[in-house]
Amino acid sequence: MQTHHYLGALPKISETLWYVALWGEQWLALVSFSAPALKCMARDRWIGWDFRHQYDRLKLVTNNSRFLILPDWHVANLASRILALCQKRLSADWQTTFGHPVVLLETFVDPRRFRGTIYKAANWLYVGNTKGFRRVRQGYSAKAQSPKMVFLKALQPNVPSLLSGATLNPIYHTGDPKIMLRAEQMRSLPHFFTDIPDPRRPQGRRHRLATVLAIAAGATLCGMRGYRAMSDWANNLGQKARERFGCRREKRRYVVPSQYVIRDALIRVNPAELDRALQRWNQAHGAEDESLAIDGKTMCNAIDAHGHQTHIISVVGHQSNTCYTQKKWAPCP
Q1: CA distance 174 to 192
Q2: How many other C-beta atoms are found inside a 10 Å radius of the C-beta of residue 165?
Q3: Least crowded by CB within 10 Å, which of 9, 72, 219, 313?
Q4: Other C-beta atoms lying within 10 Å of the C-beta of residue 99
Q5: Contact predicate 35/13, CB 8 Å
Q6: Residues contacting residue 41 through CB under 8 Å, at least 6 positions apart
Q7: CB of 160 within 8 A of CB of 48?
Q8: Per-residue pLDDT tens for 172-206?
């Protein structure tokens, strides 16, 4: 690769697999798949996901970072055949190696050198060009250079719906399992929100604020992100679970708040009071944790008025996977 590829060899980038195409004992080609681009407007527009899902599901995408046909083996249809063979086995190999599948392939082609013919022949989809910026140590380069053509290949039907949906099938989850709420935890959650003043207008209230906040908190603890995901999680609750959350009873059945009601309550409630209530619940149910993990993240889309990215530090219990507190920090101007 270092000798014959115009970009040279590529070091391992996060989760990476290398393939060698053989004919008998002869090496025909070298192919590598590695971590996808953090941001790519053409790809992200085609998928249709938002930032809440993008950084959580990016591991379901992989980048064809290198593809080299070795000298003396430039044979018609060989490149598309090799791509097709890789596509058939890649998801299973990824599952075996890294513990989760991949559902979408991406690659970038420099139009100054190539036309993307082999990807077109292998039924990859051209979705647009990059802006020409590249990653550097400080973030992104100041000036746009050569834009690249973006090609995508879905490994199964309905990939945009899968990646952009409010909820994700558990077989595609990456990382540690999400927390599951026990019956006593469901019953206790609403009690911690009863002292929070209800900021909603009295007219038309159908659900207690404590119940709405408890369901939103429960959905978040179980891995839901966004109002739609919270609403879907609530709609999937059984009648026993709805009773434990203190849901309203209508026509002998317990009903859950709608997506609008959840969103309306969360954008109106005092965040400081909500945070204190959640911390009290964490303290009550965190006795089983023997150790805590402290982790920091940079919020890529959270920019303050001075142009600084916001950093979040979290404290999580090893045994319960409970997040006890989060604090944000940004450098002072």
Answers
A1: 31
A2: 17
A3: 72
A4: 11
A5: yes
A6: 128, 130, 131
A7: yes
A8: 766 544 556 778 888 888 889 988 988 888 887 88
Nearest alpha-carbon partner for 122 in 132, 110, 109, 136: 109
In the chain, DSSP assigns E strands to 17-23, 26-34, 61-69, 104-109, 125-129, 135-136, 139-140, 149-154, 248-250, 253-255, 292-303, 309-317, 323-329
Stretches where the chain sits below pLDDT 50 are: 176-177
Q: Rounded to whole angstroms, how far apart are CA atoms 94 and 221?
A: 28
Burial of 102 (0-12, 13-18, 19+ CB in 10 A): buried
Q: Are 43 and 37 in contact (CB under 8 A)?
A: yes
- 16-42 pLDDT, tens per residue? 999 999 998 899 999 999 989 888 899
Q: How far is CA 211 from the centre of its chain?
A: 28
Residue 287 backbone phi and psi in degrees, to 5: -65, -25
Estimate the crossing angle of helix 209-221 against helix 271-285, to 10 degrees: 60
Write b or e for each residue in 268-287: b if 16 or more Cβ atoms lie within 10 A of its Cβ, otherwise e. ebeeeebeebbeebbeebbe
Give the chain's largest Cα–Cα span: 78
Pairing relationship of beta strands 104-109 and 61-69 according to DSSP bridges: parallel
Among 205, 227, 203, residue whose Cα is nearest residue 215 = 227
pTM for the full model?
A: 0.60
Task: Dihedral sign for Cα 205, 209, 213, 218, please.
Answer: negative
Residue length of the chain: 333
Tokens representing 74? 């430039």
> Which pair of tokens denotes residue 153?
């290949």
The structure tokens listed for 91 are 């998801």
Residue found by looking up tokens 């142009």 in the block: 307
Q: What is the DSSP letter of 331?
A: -
